[in-house]
Amino acid sequence: MSNEWKIPSSWIWTLTGDIAQVVGGGTPSTNNKQNYENGEIPWITPADLSGYSDKLIAHGKRNITKHGLEVSGAKLLPKGSVLLSSRAPIGYVAIAANPLATNQGFKSFIPASGVVSEYLYYYLQRAHSIVLSFSSGTTFPEISGKNCGLIPFPLAPLSEQRRIVAEIEKQFARLDEGIAALKRMEEDLQLYRASVLKAACEGRIVPTEAALARTEGGEYAPASVLLQRILKQRRAQWEREQLARMKALGKRPKDDKWKEKYDEPEEPNTSNLARLPEGWTWATVEQLNDALRPCAYGVLQPGPDVENGVLLIRVGDIGYGKIQRRNLKRISPDIAAAYPRTNLRGGEVLISLVGAIGRTAVVPPDLAGANTARAVGVIPLSKGINPFWVELWFRNPRKIAEMTSLSHEVARKTLNLEDVRVASVGLPPVTEQKRIVAEVERRLRVIEEMEATVAINLARAEELRRSILQRAFAGRLVPQDHSDEPASQLLERIADERWRKEEADMKEKKRRPRRPPRDEKGPGLFREEPKDIRRALLRPGHGLPVEEAFEYGGFSYEPNDDGEFADVDAFFEQLVVLLKQKDVELMRHPDSVSLLSNVPRFPPRRPRTQR
Description:
alpha+beta, five-stranded mixed beta sheet, disordered C terminus
């Protein structure tokens, strides 16, 4: 075993399997109510540790019964056991606050006397990358119990372990106070952003045009005049387009009846709408919409990424009123050409319609020519309407809540574009729109700068946390005390205690009936005792034939349910490990091969003491 980093001379590098018993978990059958109903044994799964930040855990979402414990691979772990999630994902760590069990997604450590549970707990956090390096599998990486026992471990003297834990927790407590303050600031900034947008949409963020006119003795054009001008321009725009189309077809209108085909945009229903500031008016998105470019959905099936293709804006690219450009997809020009209504020209308002309802942004001029995904609605606006004002109106948390309430569930929340088309918009006078947008942008820039500062400090706090753990397990967090018992002696004592315990357990097993208890799965099926070649080599005599070692070790020649001879593979895997460790030798005879232990009686492997 190579040393991972330099440690004090009174410490020693060993393996986790040398200082703790590694225990797996199991899941009782969910088809049997006896396994769960009225269960009193806490049962932990990796999902119980998702987002869990406390050091101790007392229970998960479910309990199991004593019967469920007995008929499954689950084991009752004592208080102080250190739980390590070994898959989906690897690396969640907690300490059992009381006796409990886990499912098979854990490999737990029962520390030997002389190893402080908290010391092991914090070390596994420090050694997260090392733990991951012992995993295997590509789709669903997992770390086996055997590999969990091979994780390098810097064992410190017992008294120093306690001092290290105390210092870690003291520094972490101060750090957590600072992080909590930063988190509160994050929340306050989010609330302030919402209040800025709310005030802007209620006409309270800058003086209204009406108020300025009274103060300064001037006049102003109310938004109702603006709306009427826009509606008039909208109709004129439609009429010009219709005349041009008829002329291209060689037709001339005989009268004005063709003008009756114009669909007046739907007006807002103001009966349930709030009172607007003086000078404002209500309008629908359709009334503010470009007459020749109605609201539209984007590309239904974008296809694969195409180098130098047309940029495609998706829901995930929209946030906080801006388009994030880092991950913009490019699609085939032929596919984009099939959706001309969402061919962007710059100045359109985009709104997300699927999943995260109500994300908005204004298309900047340099993204002209791009297109949008089906889940993004495009709102082209008439001239005279400030698109940034409309975007702010829809970014207001109250408006987002309103639009979300109109959505319906398919696979995800989905908002119909028709609901956007008839949505109400409070419209201020033109100059007031500009002043509101400018003031909101100024305040939001300040908020963004403060949020960036908070994010930097949170990242620094996490880096400091990692630094504390790195210094702790390199022996640089607390001073060494030369009167402490060296870790090498502590490790020898742990090994002796384990050897005596395993020897006593082996003697006890000899007195027990060989037949293990029945499993609930059916008659004739039993829970297996651990299969271990060492169990065979503890028997009297030397030069045990391989066939007998296989049998006495608890291995079976019978295939499993999949027709695989798993025990045969497991036997030879163990044998290879023991041969590499030189714990056994092969003795070859003319007609057979036998195993010979290198010691008169085969004790558990002693911990390595390399420094």
